[in-house]
Design brief:
single chain; mainly beta; five-stranded antiparallel sheet; 1 helix; 43% strand
């Protein structure tokens, strides 16, 4: 009876744990050896048996400067989980959406990879893809060349899927940079310049903006003699408090013997179907020298809460108070080679700068602050 009882226990044990033993054996086999040419494991491009479902970075190190100017390594300076990782199942690609900070140490990266149905995650050896090793959250991977190939094996070991995992860090310390692109690039926005003209009429004026002409009124006690008529530029944007209300900003000069632009604004909305709003001059306090300098070929842009102006003097100016105070902004410095007749526009979170005389175009990328 005792022998019979032990036999029943062994059979129960094998029924319960046979699959687990097989999986452990497969993992040990793949981890300790290369896949030989006659290995009967089928690689797949698509399928639900071998899939990455999530990908998170662990803490990362970053190089910085010591007081003597030498590079040093700051330990765990970056929280990797703050950088979203995108998974493209159609192309079998994994990549970071937001660039990692400048001088991130990519030679030691810890990856937490989630898979479907407990699939096993392996990484191919650099320059020798037939050698693979199991990925663990306790070990780091070398992404110095920018990418690694990973294999996701189905839990039963029958198939695997190959993913290219790419990690990219900024190549400059700035949070903004210009990159010249071909003027034939199809992604360049079509409307990249706005034509503005003004014709005074009594106490008001006719404004033509992008081909549309409207009759405009000045606010009470405003002096039409200070209304700019030369080197005009205008930009509009909806107020955050009310999308149906527009903030319009107009800049330009009134004569040749002036050192600053005249700035006017209008808040335009509708009440009961009737449009309201009058133009008023934006004046600086006496002695305030944060004015927008007089220039030709002025182009205006409203971008993420900031008004940007560019003109013939070769600098980019920004205003964070809707056109009252202006300052040269080193973040948006004019790219090398750009001329004096420029137009600036934004599409999404990308800036575009076009040299209208030389037919050259630059794309400006704004990186999030770390």
């Amino acid at each position: 009876m005792r022998k019979f009882a032990r036999k029943i226990d062994f059979e129960d044990f094998m029924k319960k744990y046979f699959k687990v033993i097989c999986l452990l054996f497969l993992a040990a086999l793949l981890t300790t050896s290369c896949l030989s040419s006659d290995t009967e494991v089928t690689p797949v491009i698509t399928g639900d048996d071998a899939v990455i479902t999530s990908f998170t970075l662990g803490n990362l190190n970053q190089y910085g400067k010591t007081k003597t100017g030498k590079d040093t390594l700051y330990r765990s300076a970056i929280t990797g989980s703050n950088y979203k990782i995108s998974i493209d199942q159609e192309k079998n690609e994994v990549y970071n959406v937001k660039l990692l900070p400048y001088k991130t140490d990519l030679s030691k990266v810890v990856c937490n990879v989630g898979t479907l149905n407990n699939g096993l995650v392996y990484v191919e050896k650099i320059n020798d893809p037939e050698v693979i090793s199991l990925v663990s959250t306790s070990d780091s991977l070398d992404f110095s060349n920018g990418y690694r190939w990973m294999r996701i094996y189905a839990a039963d070991g029958s198939v695997y899927r190959r993913y290219k995992v790419t990690l990219t860090a900024r190549d400059k310390s700035t949070d903004f940079e210009w990159t010249e692109v071909s003027p034939e690039d199809p992604s360049i926005p079509g409307a990249i310049n706005h034509e503005v003209t003004i014709e005074k009429e009594g106490d008001g004026f006719k404004l033509t903006y992008d081909g549309a002409t409207t009759t405009e009124e000045l606010g009470e006690d405003e002096n039409i003699n200070f209304l700019p008529v030369n080197n005009l530029a205008m930009v509009t944007w909806p107020l955050e408090s009310n999308d149906d209300t527009l903030y319009k900003l107009l800049v330009g000069t009134i004569g040749e013997n002036t050192d600053k632009c005249m700035v006017w604004r209008k808040i335009e909305g509708y009440v009961g179907g009737d449009k309201y709003g009058q133009w008023v001059q934006v004046e600086l306090a006496k002695g305030n020298k944060n004015f927008l300098p007089a220039m030709t070929n002025i182009s205006l842009l409203y971008f993420e809460g900031v008004v940007i102006a560019v003109g013939s003097d070769g600098f980019l100016y920004t205003s964070v108070d809707e056109g009252t105070n202006w300052r040269k902004d080193g973040r948006f410095a004019k790219p090398e080679g750009a001329g004096d007749h420029l137009s600036i526009i934004a599409e999404g979170d990308v800036l575009w700068l076009k040299d209208l005389d030389a037919n050259r175009v630059w794309k400006g990328i704004v990186y999030e602050q770390d």
